[in-house]
Amino acid sequence: QVHLVESGGGLVQTGGSLRLSCAASGSIREITVWGWYRQAPGNQREHVATIMSGGSTNYADSVKGRFTISRDTPNNTGYLQMNSLKPEDTAVYYCAAFEGSVWYGRYDYWGQGTQVTVSS
Protein backbone atom coordinates (compact mmCIF):
# COMPACT_ATOMS: atom_id res chain seq x y z
CA GLN A 1 0.00 0.00 0.00
CA VAL A 2 1.18 3.50 -0.88
CA HIS A 3 0.30 6.56 1.16
CA LEU A 4 0.28 10.08 -0.34
CA VAL A 5 0.56 13.22 1.78
CA GLU A 6 0.14 16.69 0.32
CA SER A 7 1.61 19.83 1.84
CA GLY A 8 2.15 23.45 0.91
CA GLY A 9 -1.40 24.70 0.79
CA GLY A 10 -2.51 27.88 2.51
CA LEU A 11 -3.86 31.38 2.12
CA VAL A 12 -2.34 33.66 -0.50
CA GLN A 13 -3.34 36.93 -2.15
CA THR A 14 -4.29 37.24 -5.79
CA GLY A 15 -1.17 37.12 -7.92
CA GLY A 16 0.78 35.17 -5.35
CA SER A 17 2.42 31.76 -5.56
CA LEU A 18 2.32 28.47 -3.74
CA ARG A 19 4.18 25.21 -4.22
CA LEU A 20 2.35 22.03 -3.37
CA SER A 21 4.23 18.85 -2.58
CA CYS A 22 3.02 15.26 -2.53
CA ALA A 23 5.19 12.74 -0.75
CA ALA A 24 4.64 9.05 -1.33
CA SER A 25 5.53 6.43 1.25
CA GLY A 26 4.95 2.74 1.82
CA SER A 27 5.47 -0.19 -0.51
CA ILE A 28 6.37 1.81 -3.59
CA ARG A 29 7.40 0.05 -6.78
CA GLU A 30 7.66 2.89 -9.26
CA ILE A 31 5.29 5.82 -9.59
CA THR A 32 4.97 6.37 -13.33
CA VAL A 33 2.23 8.99 -13.45
CA TRP A 34 1.54 11.85 -11.05
CA GLY A 35 -1.56 13.96 -11.17
CA TRP A 36 -3.09 16.94 -9.41
CA TYR A 37 -6.80 17.58 -9.12
CA ARG A 38 -8.86 20.17 -7.30
CA GLN A 39 -12.36 20.53 -5.94
CA ALA A 40 -14.02 23.80 -5.08
CA PRO A 41 -17.13 23.95 -2.86
CA GLY A 42 -20.20 22.87 -4.80
CA ASN A 43 -18.13 21.72 -7.78
CA GLN A 44 -16.96 18.36 -9.03
CA ARG A 45 -13.32 17.38 -8.75
CA GLU A 46 -11.45 18.57 -11.82
CA HIS A 47 -8.15 17.71 -13.42
CA VAL A 48 -5.38 20.26 -13.00
CA ALA A 49 -2.19 18.66 -14.31
CA THR A 50 -0.52 15.34 -15.12
CA ILE A 51 3.09 14.33 -15.60
CA MET A 52 4.12 11.05 -17.17
CA SER A 53 7.22 8.97 -16.50
CA GLY A 54 8.92 10.37 -19.59
CA GLY A 55 8.30 13.93 -18.44
CA SER A 56 5.43 14.85 -20.73
CA THR A 57 2.82 17.03 -19.10
CA ASN A 58 -0.81 17.94 -19.55
CA TYR A 59 -2.64 20.90 -18.03
CA ALA A 60 -6.18 22.13 -17.71
CA ASP A 61 -6.72 25.17 -19.91
CA SER A 62 -7.52 27.26 -16.84
CA VAL A 63 -4.01 26.82 -15.39
CA LYS A 64 -1.83 26.68 -18.51
CA GLY A 65 1.03 29.13 -18.30
CA ARG A 66 0.56 29.62 -14.56
CA PHE A 67 1.00 26.16 -13.02
CA THR A 68 3.88 23.74 -13.45
CA ILE A 69 3.83 20.09 -12.49
CA SER A 70 7.09 18.29 -11.76
CA ARG A 71 8.39 15.15 -10.12
CA ASP A 72 11.34 13.94 -8.07
CA THR A 73 11.44 10.27 -8.96
CA PRO A 74 14.23 9.13 -6.59
CA ASN A 75 12.39 10.71 -3.67
CA ASN A 76 8.91 9.64 -4.78
CA THR A 77 7.56 13.18 -4.63
CA GLY A 78 5.35 15.18 -6.93
CA TYR A 79 5.07 18.96 -7.06
CA LEU A 80 2.70 21.61 -8.33
CA GLN A 81 4.11 25.11 -8.64
CA MET A 82 1.26 27.60 -8.79
CA ASN A 83 1.95 31.18 -9.89
CA SER A 84 -0.28 34.16 -10.64
CA LEU A 85 -2.97 32.68 -8.45
CA LYS A 86 -6.55 33.83 -8.84
CA PRO A 87 -9.54 33.63 -6.49
CA GLU A 88 -11.05 31.00 -8.79
CA ASP A 89 -8.09 28.73 -8.00
CA THR A 90 -9.44 28.38 -4.47
CA ALA A 91 -10.10 24.70 -3.83
CA VAL A 92 -8.91 21.59 -2.07
CA TYR A 93 -6.03 20.20 -4.11
CA TYR A 94 -5.45 16.46 -4.31
CA CYS A 95 -2.47 14.57 -5.65
CA ALA A 96 -2.74 11.16 -7.25
CA ALA A 97 -0.26 8.50 -8.30
CA PHE A 98 -0.18 5.54 -10.69
CA GLU A 99 2.34 2.68 -10.52
CA GLY A 100 1.64 0.62 -13.60
CA SER A 101 3.61 0.40 -16.81
CA VAL A 102 0.66 1.06 -19.11
CA TRP A 103 -1.33 4.18 -18.25
CA TYR A 104 -5.04 3.67 -18.62
CA GLY A 105 -6.21 6.88 -17.01
CA ARG A 106 -7.08 5.70 -13.54
CA TYR A 107 -4.91 6.44 -10.54
CA ASP A 108 -4.01 3.87 -7.90
CA TYR A 109 -3.61 6.23 -4.96
CA TRP A 110 -4.95 9.57 -3.77
CA GLY A 111 -3.86 12.01 -1.10
CA GLN A 112 -6.13 13.51 1.52
CA GLY A 113 -6.06 16.99 0.02
CA THR A 114 -4.67 20.37 0.96
CA GLN A 115 -6.62 23.62 1.02
CA VAL A 116 -5.58 26.49 -1.20
CA THR A 117 -7.35 29.80 -0.66
CA VAL A 118 -6.69 32.84 -2.84
CA SER A 119 -8.00 36.11 -1.50
CA SER A 120 -9.01 38.97 -3.76
Keywords:
120 residues; mainly beta; four-stranded antiparallel β-sheet; 11 strands; globular
Terminal CA distance reads 40 Å
Principal-axis shape equals globular
- Summarize the helix and strand pattern as letters: EEEEEEEEEEE
Total number of beta strands? 11
The count of helical stretches stands at: 0
- Output mean pLDDT: 96
Helix proportion of residues, in percent? Answer: under 10%
Q: Uncertain runs with pLDDT below 50, 5 residues or more?
A: none
Structural class: mainly beta
* Radius of gyration based on Cα positions: 14 Å
Fraction of residues in β-strands: over 45%
Sheet having the most strands: 7 strands, mixed
Give structural notes.
Helix content is 0%, strand content 52%. It has strands spanning 2-7, 10-13, 18-26, 33-39, 46-51, 57-59, 67-72, 77-82, 91-98, 109-110, 114-119. Strands 2, 4, 5, 6, 9, 10 and 11 form a 7-stranded mixed sheet that branches. Strands 1-3-8-7 form a 4-stranded antiparallel sheet, with no helix packed on it. It starts with a strand and ends with a strand. A hairpin with a 5-residue loop joins β5 (46-51) and β6. It is mainly beta and 120 residues long. It has no helices and 11 strands. It is globular and about 40 Å long.
